[in-house]
């Protein structure tokens, strides 16, 4: 089948190339990189923006005039305009507000609390963004960097993610790639990519058990891998999604706040001072990798730090990582002596103190000969080269050519098994009902890459009936997709509270020619921006309709506990929200939801407190 290259910038299909370039991307919390395999020496190389820096800060700044800055230009704005500058967006991928509420104060920008389990939103001015949209802006910058360096259009890529990323986070990463105009051929675990960069697993006869210690800007994870005959098996992972270089910086900031007279007051009163102190902390940490002390002057404040004090401050965090290492070994059923190589990944592993502690834990020298910032991107480039068919020794198992999923409210496609998943495979997700007393759910199975099911291919449909009458949102319906070694898809739906279940076998699963698959992929990328806009609008409408239903029920049930003004204003806000549903503006709907939520939260909490107090009256705690 001929390879087809899509020039998204020009909106047309380019002529096929003899040697297609597939890039490898490390979409990081703090910095992101893009790499490729050089055709002359067949070595992976990280590409530099404007020939200067390979590291592109994962930071986005939204100017008042609507202009968007990404990378170093955005980082320069983080002190003067922190509320319009987004960083560490990877921490928000695939998360609800409930997942990140304890860390809300970490962000200088507004993360919306909508009291739901829907994916988190970020508010910049009057605009609302999802982590997918924000990540796509970083990916666009990486794509542009690659195209400028290589002087040709690039449309296919491999993107790395932490090994612990769940299905939602992996799908969110793929969606971000699609929105950036990239066909994401494979989502690769970061430890697997790091192993490839060190040449581990490239030899067919090689067998090893290795540990990949990855301490990045925002996350830490330790992965234990078994590599045999070119097959990478993750035996165990452990880590902390909120432990990384950012936390080491915060420890330094906290030390200065406690020990520099007057700094705490200035810090509390100014976002600009907060970001300046944070940046000086990061610079001090980096400098102390090769010097014994640092000094920065911020207005009248002297910010000093020694290597001894830094090691004292970061030791608790390093110890936490080693506890994770111990748990990962236990989960894998291995001892330190079973590990044959320890690979260091992430800029925070540059610290001599970190390397020393990890080396002592595993009783062996660590592998740190490659640039720890670049190692994952280099490995992604090697994986991309494998997918391009240029390396024959690494085994690529059979994969699903197109994504498989079901129809959800609003005619949206919810992917359960992403395209390019290795088979055999199994994946599932839990859903619920949208109406009170709903006794059945229609499950429609689709195949394709578009956001609306009407643009995808319908494979099958069945009804899960006999669900006991329950309030909306109470039933838990698990839908599981299983693809066997022959490519046959089995779909099973089960209501977990009652045990009611139904299943169907879908065969033949695909029945599409290579040309039809290629056509569907091209259409998904050409229409990605419009598809995401439609999906975003439909999701906002669905969320708003649920909020309206819940709020109206709340008013009806608790009218006696509310003031007349509270009821009147809430009803007016409900009318405004209902009116916004008639407009094709997602941001307007989000704005109206936010207004309703902000107004009702105080008295909703008051009513909840009354209900709890009433429930506790006359109750005794059993001894």
Can you walk through the features of this model?
A hairpin with a 5-residue loop joins strand 27 (489-495) and strand 28 (501-506). Helix 5 packs across helix 11, helix 6 runs antiparallel to helix 9 (307-332) and helix 13 runs parallel beside helix 15. The longest helix is centred in the C-terminal third of the chain and has 31 residues, at 528-558. The protein is an alpha+beta fold. Strands 3, 4, 5, 6, 13 and 14 form a six-stranded mixed sheet that branches. It has 15 helices and 28 strands. The protein is globular, with a radius of gyration of 26 Å. 37% of the residues lie in helices and 24% in strands. The chain folds into four domains: 1-198 and 375-392, 2-Layer Sandwich (Nucleotidyltransferase, domain 5), CATH 3.30.420.40; 245-312, ATPase, substrate binding domain, subdomain 4 (Actin, Chain A, domain 4); 404-512, Substrate Binding Domain Of DNAk, Chain A, domain 1 (Sandwich); 530-616, Substrate Binding Domain Of Dnak, Chain:A, Domain 2 (Up-down Bundle). The model is unreliable at 1-18 and 619-623 (pLDDT under 50).
Low-confidence stretches: 1-18, 619-623
Query: Helical stretch count?
Result: 15
Count of beta strands: 28
What is the CATH topology classification name of the largest domain? Nucleotidyltransferase, domain 5
């Amino acid at each position: 089948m001929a390879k087809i290259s899509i020039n998204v910038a020009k909106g047309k299909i380019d002529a096929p190339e003899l040697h297609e370039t597939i890039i490898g991307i490390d979409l990081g919390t703090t910095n992101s990189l893009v790499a490729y395999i050089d055709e002359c020496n067949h070595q992976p190389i990280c590409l530099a923006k404007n020939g200067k820096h390979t590291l592109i800060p994962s930071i986005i700044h939204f100017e008042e005039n609507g202009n968007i800055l990404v990378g170093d230009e955005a980082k320069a704005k983080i002190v003067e305009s922190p509320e319009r500058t987004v960083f560490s967006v990877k921490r928000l991928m695939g998360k609800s507000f409930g997942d990140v509420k304890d860390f809300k104060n970490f962000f200088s920008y507004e993360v919306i609390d909508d009291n739901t389990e829907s994916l988190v939103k970020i508010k910049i001015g009057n605009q609302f963004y999802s982590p997918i949209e924000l990540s796509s802006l970083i990916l666009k910058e990486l794509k542009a960097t690659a195209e400028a360096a290589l002087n040709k259009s690039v449309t296919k890529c491999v993107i790395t993610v932490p090994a612990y990323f769940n299905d939602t986070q992996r799908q969110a990463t793929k969606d971000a790639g699609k929105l950036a105009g990239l066909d994401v051929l494979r989502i690769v675990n970061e430890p697997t990519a790091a192993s490839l960069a060190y040449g581990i697993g490239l030899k067919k006869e090689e067998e090893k058990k290795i540990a990949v210690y990855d301490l990045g800007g925002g996350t830490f994870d330790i992965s234990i891998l078994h590599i045999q005959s070119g097959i990478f098996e993750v035996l165990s992972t452990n880590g902390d999604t909120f432990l990384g270089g950012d936390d080491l910086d915060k420890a330094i900031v906290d030390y200065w706040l406690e020990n520099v007279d007057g700094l705490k007051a200035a810090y509390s009163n100014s976002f600009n001072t907060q970001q300046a102190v944070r940046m000086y902390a990061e610079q001090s940490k980096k400098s102390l990798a090769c010097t014994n002390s640092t000094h920065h002057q911020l207005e009248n404040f002297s910010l000093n730090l020694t290597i001894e004090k830094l090691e004292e401050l970061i030791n608790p965090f390093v110890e936490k990582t080693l506890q994770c290492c111990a748990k990962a070994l236990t989960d894998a059923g291995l001892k330190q002596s079973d590990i044959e190589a320890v690979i260091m990944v992430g800029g925070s592993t540059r610290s001599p103190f970190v390397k020393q502690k990890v080396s002592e834990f595993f009783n062996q020298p660590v592998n740190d000969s490659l640039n720890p910032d670049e190692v994952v991107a280099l490995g992604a480039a090697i994986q991309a080269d494998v997918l391009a068919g240029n390396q024959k020794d690494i085994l690529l198992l059979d994969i699903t050519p197109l994504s498989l999923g079901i129809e959800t409210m609003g005619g949206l496609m919810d992917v359960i098994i992403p395209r390019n998943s290795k088979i055999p495979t199994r994946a599932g997700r839990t859903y619920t009902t949208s109406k009170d007393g709903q006794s059945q759910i229609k499950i429609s199975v689709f195949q394709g890459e578009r956001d609306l099911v009407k643009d995808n291919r319908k494979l099958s449909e069945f009804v899960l009936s006999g669900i006991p009458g329950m309030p909306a949102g109470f039933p838990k319906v698990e839908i599981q997709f299983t693809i066997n070694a022959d490519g046959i898809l089995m779909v099973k739906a089960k209501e977990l509270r009652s045990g009611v279940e139904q299943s169907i076998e879908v065969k033949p699963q695909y029945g599409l020619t290579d040309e039809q698959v290629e056509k569907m992929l091209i259409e998904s990328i050409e229409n990605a921006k419009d598809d995401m806009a439609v999906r975003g609008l439909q999701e906002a409408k669905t969320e708003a309709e649920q909020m309206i239903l819940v709020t109206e029920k709340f008013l009806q049930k608790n009218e006696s506990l509310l003031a007349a003004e509270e009821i009147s204003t809430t009803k007016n806000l409900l009318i405004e929200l209902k009116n916004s549903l008639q407009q094709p503006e997602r941001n307007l709907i989000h704005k109206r939801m936010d207004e309703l939520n902000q107004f009702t939260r105080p008295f909703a909490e008051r009513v909840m407190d009354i209900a709890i107090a009433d429930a506790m009256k006359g109750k005794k705690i059993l001894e």
